[in-house]
Amino acid sequence: MTLISVERMKLFSTRSPWWCIVTALGLTIGFAAMFASQVQDTAPMSVGMTQRGAQFGLIVVMVMAALAVTTEYRFGTIRATFQAMPNRVAVMLAKTSVVAVLAFLIGELAAFGSWAAGWLLTSDQALVLDTAAEWRQVAGVGLVFAGAAVFALSVGALVRQTAGAVTLVMIWVLLAESLIQLLPTIGDDIYQWLPFAAAFRFMRGGGDSMMSQPVSEMPIGPWASLVYFLAITLVLLVVALVTVRKRDA
Amino acid sequence: MIEAVGLTKRYGSTVAVNDLSFTVKPGKVTGFLGPNGAGKSTTMRMMLGLDRPTAGEVLFDGKRYTDLRNPLRTVGALVDAKWVHPNRSAYAHLKWMARSNGIPTKRVDEVLDTVGLTEVARRKAGGFSLGMSQRLGIATALLGDPDILMFDEPVNGLDPEGINWIRRFMQRLAAEGRTVLVSSHLLSEMAQTAEELVVVGRGRLITQCTTEEFVDSTSSSSVKVRAPQAERLREVLTAQGMAVAPPDSREPDSLLVSDSTTERIGELAAGHGFVLHELSAQRGSLEDAFMRITGQDVEYRTGSPESALPGDAGDGALAAADK
User: Fold this and answer.
1) Nearest 5 degrees, angle CA A17-CA B79-CA A66?
2) Is A12 on the interface with B (CB under 8 A)?
């Protein structure tokens, strides 16, 4: 518990997490509000559509998570940290927990905020949360944010440089996965098993939106997709922990 | 008490620290002396478990650093004063460090007061001058009220007042019975602060002895005599078999006598009825002595010009090809 409260103190005694929280919520909810205000009768509103801006928040949260480690290397505070607490694995796990919990909370706030913005602006009865799939599409966002934060934090711990880690994470999430999908013949088959494809399947799949993939077309169900995504994240975290433990600080 | 045994650090084929063993005893300031690149900082990082030694280990009161529970309460160290987040206040920095080792928060105010940073404690550490950062680093080291303290080049960037403060401060810590290890590349600095020296060059131990022994063994001593009848005194001293340096036109009434003592010269002068205006022992430059002893252990030496000349082998090969 001491380690967790130390990491919490460290995270919140600088300004960047506050900026990240404000930016993540502002962008996500702002996009949802804009979307809802422009929606036409020809394209009916759905719960899934209120969450289309989640990717904004996701990227901001991942940048925050990567920074939580890379700034420590940048400013040498990682050495002060390991000097005070030589058990590196415990320190990194505490940091991961703090960042993951924060990412989860930001995700939930962003998702319910977006949903509320859609509801207030359209008063569309389709936005009532009355199916399990709709609940998953809103409440599940926090889980994906938490997993994505662990993913970014692990990359940060491996790369140790802000620019490198942020670039890698952004390119992977925004570009690499969808580019792989464009490969002829094999592209689609590979894409289905990429981590963020699985995460988005969980976050957006099913429900009654025209734009989301029906569950029947998924290689594995939405919850299995989440487990798959989290498992990949966990493997990456273990690799990062082993590396941090072995390497000179 | 610090014991380093066979400490070795290799980066690929370069050996940064080579089989280094030494002990640091409590109750006095021990200087960790060596030229730049001798492996002092690497050694300190290995001592703190930050860098992994290729071989060897360091024990603090019999325990490895990584086995210490709440290490800041046993070993306080200042390795790099810049290991602070620039957007975090000095107070916030010390507070998380205190929390991590179960040190009460009121201790943060105490150490800030000790190093004289109370007034700027809430300001961002990124705006600190080098001297203020250094003081914050010292506050960090003192936080856990540890029995063992290590400082890497603590006077770097400090003004004369700060340097003086650090010297007295370290001596006070040692007088309280603590173990104090201070690294420096300046022998003159160590001569004023440390009682005991661990001297390293190119990652290897050169010697461990008292500062006095080191200075005596490395510097030639001579005696300066100033007398109105300098020329006649010279004859007397030379007749006694002493080596007197040739006269210096800038100071015609001074003599520089090597291999003698102030006592002998004073007695001789009195016996012959000479008036003396000055009689003082001269130490050779400590830096010169240090250079002499660590000369072969400097990592970055300037290359000799001869090595850049083309060898004969090339000409021979050309001649062979002509045939």
Assistant:
1) 25
2) no
